[in-house]
Design a protein that fits this description.
single chain; alpha/beta; 2 domains; seven-stranded mixed sheet; 11 strands; 26% strand; globular
Length: 253
């Protein structure tokens, strides 16, 4: 039987890009999140690993304000989401599981539209857009309509869009669903590199164990409960993370 585990190796990192305290949420009688707490340190890739139905998308809905919980504390870069939602959300970039690009607009127009929503305009916006497209290697597709891109390139554009306003933390909800293995690996690798080179924090929700790297912070979520929070390599103990994860979730089924 597995109890909730906390890896003390990460407890010495005080600066938190995201902190969630005692979050509850239910759909009618179904308890989707049962008082969970977790944190994402600054500049860290944190994998939120859980089977379908674990509560990952519900958590993301609460973090970005699409859902509301009266029993939770959420702090984004130290800012209370409930007390100051606009300020807190300004520090956050969000990439949902389903694409949210306007498929009839070009890549550049999609980015310009989002920049305008963020209050960015003129030369400042164009510099940020060009830089984001360069980082995601989609500059050569700038004038192509989003509907003409393959799934991997659409995801790259969405990541570029999420980075325009220089957020402190980026939330990605199952960002590689439907992509081929090469595209999955490329995007996973890029986002890990982003944390190292840009100091951006990432909360990456997935049900795919191979997207979790040994040095990642890891939160295992199952049926609305956090079973583990710590370093992935500590949980796997240099063995198979997949086997440990399946054992943990099977024990709680």
């Amino acid at each position: 039987m597995f109890l909730k585990l906390i890896d003390t190796e990460i407890s010495s990192q005080p600066a938190m890009a995201l902190k969630v305290e005692k979050m509850h949420f239910a759909y009618g009688r179904h308890k989707a999140l049962d008082g969970i707490s977790l944190s994402v340190p600054t500049g860290v890739f944190c994998a939120l690993l859980g089977l379908n139905g674990a509560g990952k998308s519900t958590l993301f809905g609460l973090l970005c304000g699409l859902l509301v919980s009266g029993k939770a504390g959420v702090f984004v870069n130290g800012i209370d989401l409930r007390a100051n939602p606009r300020h807190a959300l300004a520090h956050m970039g969000i990439i949902f599981q389903e694409t949210t690009l306007d498929l009839d607009l070009s890549v550049r127009r999609n980015l310009q539209y989002f920049a305008a929503l963020q209050g960015m305009s003129g030369r400042t916006a164009e510099i940020a857009i060009d830089r984001a497209m360069d980082r995601l290697e989609v500059r050569d597709r700038a004038n192509d309509r989003a509907r003409d891109l393959n799934g991997g390139h659409r995801r790259r554009v969405e990541i570029a869009r999420a980075l325009l306003h220089k957020p402190k933390i980026v939330l990605l909800d199952e960002p590689t669903v439907g992509l081929d293995p090469a595209s999955r690996a490329a995007i996973t690798s890029y986002v890990h590199t982003l944390c190292v080179e840009e100091g951006i924090s990432v909360l990456w929700a997935t049900h795919l164990v191979d997207e979790v790297w040994p040095g990642d912070n890891l939160v295992v979520l199952h049926k609305g409960t956090v079973l583990y929070e710590g370093l992935a390599k500590t949980l796997s103990n240099d063995g198979s993370l997949s086997e440990v994860f399946l054992d943990m979730t099977a024990a709680k089924t």
